[in-house]
Amino acid sequence: MPRTTRIAALAAAGVLAALALPVAEGAITSTAPSTTADHTARLDRYYSQHPAWHRCDADDPATYQCATITVPVDYAHPSGRTLRLRISRIRTSTPGKRHGVLLSNPGGPGDQGLADPLQLKDALAKTVLQRYDLIGFDPRGLGASSPLHCGLTRNETDSTEPYRPYRATTFAEDTARARDIAAKCTTRNGSRLLPYINTRNTARDMDVIRGILGERKLSYVGWSYGTYLGAVYTQLFPRRSDRMVLDSAVDPNRFGRGTVLAMAAGAEPAFEDWSQLVARRDRTYHLGDTPAKVRAGFWQLVARADRTPLLYEGDDLDHQGQSLNGADIRSWMRWSFAAEPYQAARDIVTLRTSHPTDQSARPDTSPADPANDNAVGLNWAITCADNTASWPRDPARYRRDAHREKARHPLYGDFAANITPCAFWPRGAEPATRVDNTAAALVIQNQWDPQTPLSSGRALHRALHGSRLVYIHGGRGHTVYALPGAPARVTRTVDAYLTDGHLPKTDLTCNS
């Protein structure tokens, strides 16, 4: 997902396959015979590497070690070009209690995971740490792992909203912007690389890491997009998948455009719920004493801001001092209605008393910060190339879809359906991965998740037939496990699964 909530928390801290062969470059098929081999002989040079582990940085603990390994750009042609992948570890397991390694991914796509072991060492229970060595990595194309760069501007990278609202008057501009981003990334990286920056190859890289570490199986924790990455791993490497925790889940069989459309669909019930909460507290917020009045007042505010932008002078640092039009408010509140409903109410109160402003910032065309350029370029690369078939190539299709989705989902539907760089992106090297297997994973899902809605968590649970769903009734926000405020029952359930390998006998419902 384009949101970086998980990595922010850690550091302080946007289709044709059935069951695949358990080999790193196996064809997508359900009829080929299975094999006990880790990989084909053509991949021996990668699986037999001996990393030179060393202290990651002089300022880091000596126990936090890093190494660089090599992986092929294209697993179908492993003798061709290669990428350098940066991996990390902290050996926290206890002799006699050790189960294996626990690899993690914080999400994105576009969130770096190299420092995850440092953060998880302090966040996980002692019983879990005794069982595993913690393994992190920056996925291919990101951070310290052969990072791709596109040469984007600050205007193309710095917005908290990567998707743009549909307006007839700006659609030509939106189309040109999307084409420019795709052209810049293609020019810098070429069609020889971009089609291979995808989730399938990242999952294959994960299995190379497993093999290099000498492990028979891989245990894993993934948040947000990391749930999709973990699900793809279970599809490609079912015999190598061990204890898999998938927190705040992407629908694995709608990845790509469907992921964003699911966000728009999920925003509507969150808006309805918010209006009910606020109406019951009309003496506090004075936004209406019925849900219908609260919603009507919100749309009046949006219409007013669309006529003349409003200067926000509240306490939200991301928006403080900004001139906000109606689309800006819709984009912001899509997140807040679900994750922070009472803060959303306070911000709506502030906006209702805000002064109109003529301030309109000109697009900043200066070069983007290299880290932002890398993260945004990587996010588009995977979002676009993983499921090329989900992205129409005709701009007119996006115009029609935006009208339709805005009618269905007024809060965010036009954002989700509008044109993106994916309309002009080089086609991916492979079709999307169809996830449909019996992996014994643990899926964690909040009721009110603004990025990966409840419907997506349930879809992942259905795709992994051996999984259990831990549903947090009333849970708000994006990502749960190993974060402050996680419900104690969720933490105990995940810790027990990682410690002894036993899933709950049935799906669980926890209260937030």
How are the SSEs ordered, and which strands pair?
Elements (H helix, E strand, L loop, with lengths): L4 H7 L32 H4 L6 E2 L9 E8 L9 E9 L9 E6 L10 H8 L2 H4 L2 E6 L16 H4 L13 H19 L9 H14 L5 E6 L1 H12 L4 E7 L9 H23 L2 H4 L5 H17 L2 E2 L11 E2 L1 H14 L1 H12 L17 H16 L9 H14 L4 H5 L23 E8 L5 H10 L4 E9 L11 H13 L7 E4 L1
Parallel strand pairs: 4-5, 4-6, 6-7, 7-10, 10-11, 11-12
Antiparallel strand pairs: 1-2, 2-3, 3-5, 8-9
Kindly describe this structure.
The protein is of the alpha/beta class and 512 residues long. Helix content is 39%, strand content 13%. It has helices spanning 5-11, 44-47, 116-123, 126-129, 154-157, 171-189, 199-212, 225-236, 257-279, 282-285, 291-307, 326-339, 341-352, 370-385, 395-408, 413-417, 454-463, 488-500, and strands at 54-55, 65-72, 82-90, 100-105, 132-137, 218-223, 241-247, 310-311, 323-324, 441-448, 468-476, 508-511. The strands form two sheets. Strands 1-2-3-5-4-6-7-10-11-12 form a ten-stranded mixed sheet, with helices on both faces. A two-stranded antiparallel sheet has the order 8-9. Strand 10 (441-448), helix 17 (454-463) and strand 11 (468-476) form a beta-alpha-beta unit. It starts with a helix and ends with a strand. Mean pLDDT is 92; it is low at 1-36.
